[in-house]
Amino acid sequence: MASVTCTLLLLMCCCCLYISLLAEAANNVTYDKRSLIIDGERKLLISAAIHYPRSVPAMWPGLVKAAKEGGVDVIETYVFWNGHEPSPGNYYFGGRYDLVKFVKIVQDAGMLLILRIGPFVAAEWNFGGIPVWLHYVPGTVFRTDNEPFKHYMQNFTTLIVNMMKQDKFFASQGGPIILAQVENEYGFYEGAYGEGGKTYTQWAAKMALSQNTGVPWIMCQQWDAPDPVINTCNSFYCDDFKPSYPTMPKIWTENWPGWFKTFGGRNPHRPAEDVAFSVARFFQKGGSVHNYYMYHGGTNFGRTSGGPFITTSYDYDAPIDEYGLPRFPKWGHLKELHRAIKLCEHALLNNEPTLIHLGAQLEADVYEDKLGNCAAFIANIDDKNEKTVQFRNASYTLPAWSVSILPDCKNVVFNTAKVGCQTSTIEMVPEQLQPSTSSPNKDLKAESWQIFVEKTGIWGEPDFTRNGFVDHINTTKDTTDYLWHTTSLHVDENDGSKLKLVIESKGHALHAFVNGVLQASAAGNGTVSPFNFTSPVSLKAGENEIAVLSMTVGLQNAGSFYEWVGAGLTSLKLKGLKNGTLDLSNNKWSYKIGLEGEHNSLYDAGAPNKNWNSVSEPPKNQPLTWYKAIVDAPPGDEPIALDMVHMGKGLAWLNGEQIGRYWPRKAPNDKCVKECDYRGKFNPDKCNTGCGEPSQRWYHVPRSWFKPTGNVLVIFEEKGGDPTQIRFSRRILSTLCAHVSDDHPSFAINDLQKNKVSLELKCPMDKHISSFTFASYGTPTGTCQSYVIGNCHDPDSRSVVEKLCLNKNECVVELSKENFKIELCPGITKKLSVEATCS
After folding, report:
1. Yes or no: domain 750-838 corresponds to CATH 3.40.50.2300
2. In the chain, where the domains are located
3. Whole-prediction pTM
4. Segment 47-59, tens digit of pLDDT
5. Per-residue three-class SS string for 214-282
């Protein structure tokens, strides 16, 4: 990692002070074609998306702090309508939905805020963030020139704006909010609504402007956004994006540093080198506001994930992982990028660029004024070959698909393809569930498991009975994932034994039972929910009960007229009878919404419940079973996950808090990579891992949800699993590795002073570097956890790094003659590689 000299430290301290003063003193936000103008000054801003409901209040200060330490100026978040208005006029702003508290934390950290009110958000969030109840208000059509929809949308938008005004959160009031967004990515779908779509866009913009926030409004991916609403870009790359009007700045609202996962899907990754390349290209080509979506993805707790099939984890391969830990090397590499870009800020924002073609797929953009201020970005867009260029009488070598940043048009301080920051190895360390010595209820036996077994089919009285199938979502209105269908069937003794059940469904998943026995389970694939399947089935002579438990796994979250997409059974047939195929689709079916355990609030940790039965050993591989255990918190202070690899599918709670849906469904066995080539344009399927493995094995349980003892863990298992194998796992950073070469870009001070390249190591908070398992200055080879000493090696390497780093939370090791024998092996480029342990 490049050396941070005294001058640079002073510069960075000034930058921190600048950010703090900026947030406190932002009273006037305007814009011109180059940038936002805050209190009369143009600003280059780097923003980080952190969604408040996807973490918990106890995590918010640490997340904001980690973003700020990563070189971020601004926090960005959506506002989640369906979380705030669960029923018409019934508002909720507590817990994970305490928006005011979140904004205050951002403000107190001296940072700015972009508030994307929407209130449609997409975001892989259930129903795109719009309350399900709104679909059932008569005459409502979402996101078009529709009076009921516009009425409720305006009411909620006004509510949020007034709430922010009350606490003086808008920059016009001296607060941190510098931009607000109305609607979201509507440009993709506007055409499907005809003239109503165009009219709606104009109305939404006018409605937003009438709120008089005193800050600019934006619409992302809205090419016909009316002036003065700013159209912004969402994509993996936005260097070629141009605003709708020449008077507007170039803003990137969503740069995707990874991608989301689906149950049954592979694990997507985006290399740090490519993310950095995209950011550098954006600023090279005149960008001024850039936002990572996501910087911290977090968790879709409870039933908040959309899709369908979006996993509980929304980690997004983001710079801060789902558990709140910086992801190395991505977080560190982008931190260095931000530092380099900030060194160019004055030149970038106050000069027009000059484009210089340096060869095939080679170009430089130079920002220079008559006073000598100069910054340059040199890009090698070739996705295969390293190239050397001549620029201003100097030679520069650029790896393929990379950008070099020169804040003084002479010295390269950063190249997007050269990662010099630390990497880390994360382990999920299992901890057996520890029975608690105390219980919140006197009627519970703390040393035992307790279970409750759902009745197969209709429990209590049917909610209704009718011939044929109903739409699942229209029936449950998303009050639950579950809808029971039952019917009866008489089978003659002479009917064949090789019977097959054939079911077709609009989605999302189902379990089929005959006479109380689970026969088959099926689901859609990835984000595709319709499916059909054929399964052998066992029936007895005489009367048989067929019961199908239909399930949703997150509602549709985007698309034209997406609220009309249904789910549930459409056809059920029995093949193999002596008289041929029997179609039961139009039979008399009895329906029951939800589970008995849900109706009895078995997940409520504070209420005594007589439905539970104590057992010394919980049953295994038993479907439709609720499990409860009273456990102690895992030791330590590391983040915690619930390991559900030995379970089937269901829901989990801790102390009444919704951990979310679990489903260790396995990904396909193909289309994964062992190593990802960062070169060339990225797409979500380029760098997949996890083939043949569960899409999600671990489920985040925030530390703040635990008590020291007496924690109530509740699991509802649909298919059957082994609850004795359920574990908590501590997320531990076990190994730090870093390597940096003598020729690594370093931060320039001036032409007369040579800069010292250095290597930085940093353990998580409250941890210290306890040992080194490898250290070599010279020509070491290999990668983290497999480093090997090369032909050239300074034998004092380990003693040097131990002296500088042992028992410290973080340290800097310079590649200088004071520390190493730099005269070793003359004529070759040397590097320092280290591997350390934090404890």
Report:
1. no
2. 13-327, 353-420, 425-454+600-731, 464-594, 750-838
3. 0.94
4. 999 999 999 999 9
5. CCCEEEECCCCCCCCCEEEEEECCCCCCCCCCCCCCCEEEEECCCCCCECCCCEECCCHHHHHHHHHHH
